[in-house]
Amino acid sequence: MTTVTPRDEQDACAAVAEAASGRIPLAIAGGGTKVSIGRPAQTERTLSASGLSGVTLYEPAELVIGARAGTPLSEVERVLAGRGQQLTFEPLDYRPLLGSGGEPTIGGVAAANLSGPRRIQAGAARDSLIGVRFVNGRGELVKNGGRVMKNVTGLDLVKLMAGSWGTLGFLTEVTFKVLPKPERTRTLILRGLDEPGAAAAMAAALGSPYEVTAAAHLPAGLGGGAQTLIRLEGFAYSVDYRSGELRRLFRRYDLDLVDGEANLSLWRSVRDVAPFAADVSDEAVWRVSTAPTKGHVFTAQVARSVPCRWFYDWGGGLVWLACSPKEDAGAAVIRAALAETGGHATLIRAPAEVRAAVEVFQPLSEPLRRLTAGIKGSLDPVGIFSPGRMYAGI
């Protein structure tokens, strides 16, 4: 497949206009780390943002950073770290899970609406994304948003582009709100809890006044005994006080405290779904969002019909579930369980033939499908951007 790599926005507009005139479907890529997510799209060319790199705006005092879409995420994080700041939403790195190479880009973070364990406090990428520049399906450059959070009139294209997976336009530049890095992070590990008990403990921690920034549960069998993880971040004196209060709250539990690199490594493992990494597992992997109090109800229902493994993030509201990649990779059972508990599921990793045969993203109701198709038609009238990647026929 031919890859087109624009050097600037003018090049990008010309490349898209040419593709639109010839009705040539385009795969959209940044660093290529997530190309296997979604339905296999029938495209003839790849339009890559890798040539659009560099930080274009950084105002530490205003807590704003802007960069071209192909800028490596590591470069953005390095620039921010130099001033003691960070992207608040802790974007996950899909490479371990997918076994992919390449380098994650800041445009890919926005296009996939990535987030990690801090999602329960800071929101996802879309909640910090305040400005975008992109090329629509007519080859026109579009700018929306700016340098402040409340800067939108009319249609909020910033939020629309977040999580669109390259199906609505070709991102050329993104702007994010950032925050200072915490002075200290510390994790409380509660050991040996069953899943209802872990759900109750995480709910108690998140409902406390102690500003928990992450809560996860790893059931027994994922590298050891059951562990319920509760993270605190902030100024050192504040973390010391809040961890002391939580220790008192959970004084009846078998409890450890983890600081330093061990703490950081623990949450990288949760963030990047390390228990199901491609080098240790060939299972299909689902990302399931549901109510935190329903996560263990959902997994119990699925496990009655499909052999699987799982763990929880976001206080139980995010379930990472691994099962056999054969047949429909458990899709029918998972969707049926969600019909009862509520929520939605995305098939993140599976063979191409499975992703072609099942709904990878949560199926749309008919009214929502018409709305989605209408938005796609407005921004990409010829349908050249990653056609069918999210939904067949769109």
Automatic annotation (TrEMBL):
What SUPFAM superfamilies has UniProt attached to this entry?
A: FAD-binding/transporter-associated domain-like, FAD-linked oxidases, C-terminal domain
Origin, by domain of life? Bacteria
* UniProt EC number: 1.1.99.14
Residue ranges constituting the FAD-binding PCMH-type domain according to the UniProt record: 1-181
Known Gene3D superfamilies for this protein?
3.30.465.10
Mention one GO molecular function.
FAD binding
Question: What keywords are annotated for this sequence in UniProt?
Answer: FAD, Flavoprotein, Oxidoreductase
Please name the top-level EC class of this enzyme: oxidoreductase
Q: Does the keyword Cell wall biogenesis/degradation apply?
A: no
The record's listing under PANTHER family reads:
D-LACTATE DEHYDROGENASE (PTHR11748), GLYCOLATE OXIDASE SUBUNIT GLCE (PTHR11748:SF103)
Protein name (database record): Glycolate oxidase subunit GlcE
Which organism is this protein's natural source? Enterovirga aerilata
